[in-house]
UniProtKB/TrEMBL annotation:
Transmembrane segments: none
Protein name: ATP-grasp fold RimK-type domain-containing protein
Single GO cellular component term: cytoplasm
GO MF: ligase activity, forming carbon-nitrogen bonds
Domain ATP-grasp fold RimK-type: 88-244
Pfam families named among the record's database cross-references: RimK (PF08443)
Length: 261
């Protein structure tokens, strides 16, 4: 069985969970290859022999790699669908809502239409990039602040006052756990209402997210879901996460074998 871990060079040099995963696989003699997309030789079709490739690319422009691998018949974790859907805040919002989760009031429209029609009760609000992780969010106090923004389309979300931190639900295969990440200091495990956990799981499943995380904040009237991330570094919080991923891979590979029969 050929297992690949595909991640960019920059990530390989950092504290990426894929580096920990590779070290764990080495310690358990699980054969695998780390694939740097920049160094694929001679071209990406040479990866068709892999049975499973865990993809952690993070940059949207390389999403096509997952799609291409799937078209070649390689089992990709997370799938192109999961990467694509979670990578777009507007689409994630829709799936989170359909899964029964509450999200902050959000509008997405052309700047012109927002300036004309936005309800002033939306403010203070956050302008977020539609794609991308952890950068480029801006807080705006009133519609006037949007006038000089150099954007044609604006994703605007009501700010939910909360001063303590973010709650994150992590999923690895069938294991789902939640943690509270305070603004400062170490995260700790928390128990969320069953209803929230069930809805988050419904959302992960709809996105086909196998290794992922959901960010939520607690407002005065309950939890608001903010976004879903593929393979967030925080999965390291889940106890025995490396073992859980390794077991999940073995299970996945066995299922591929059965499908072939
Ligand atoms: N509507 C909101 N109200 C209050 N805080 C928010 C809101 N949306 C995001 N935040 C804060 O900003 C952080 C980043 O937002 P998020 O939507 O998770 O985007 P990303 O992590 O991709 O930058 C969140 O973890 C949270 O602390
Ligand atoms: Mg986030």
């Amino acid at each position: 069985m050929k297992v690949g871990l595909l991640t960019s060079k920059k990530i390989l040099l950092s504290q990426s969970p894929l580096v920990s995963l590779s070290n764990y696989f080495l310690s358990k003699a699980i054969s695998h290859t780390i694939i740097n997309p920049w160094a694929i030789n001679p071209d990406i079709s040479s990866l068709r022999d892999f049975d499973v490739i865990i993809v952690r690319i993070l940059q949207r422009e390389y999403l096509w790699i997952a799609q291409y691998l799937e078209e070649m018949g390689v089992r990709v974790i997370n799938s192109y669908r999961a990467l694509f859907l979670s990578g777009n805040k507007l689409i994630s919002d829709e799936i989170m809502k359909q899964s029964g989760l509450k999200i902050p009031r959000t509008v997405f429209a052309s700047k012109k239409k927002i300036l004309e029609n936005v309800d002033s009760s939306m403010f203070p609000a956050l302008v977020k990039p539609l794609y991308g992780r952890s950068r480029g969010i801006m807080c705006v106090k009133s519609v006037e602040s949007l006038k000089n923004l150099r954007k044609k389309w604006i994703y605007l979300q009501e700010f939910i006052p909360n001063d303590d931190g973010v709650t994150r639900i992590y999923k690895i295969g069938k294991v789902v756990e939640s943690f509270f990440h305070p603004n400062e200091g170490k995260a700790w495990e928390v128990l969320l209402p069953d209803e929230i956990m069930e809805r988050a799981l419904r959302c992960f499943n709809r996105m086909e997210m196998e290794i992922g995380g959901m960010d939520l904040i607690e407002g005065a009237d309950g939890y608001y879901a903010l976004e879903v991330n593929d393979f967030p570094a925080g999965v390291k919080r889940v106890e025995n996460w490396l073992e859980i991923i390794a077991d999940y891979l073995v299970e996945t590979i066995c299922t591929i074998g059965q499908e072939e029969i």
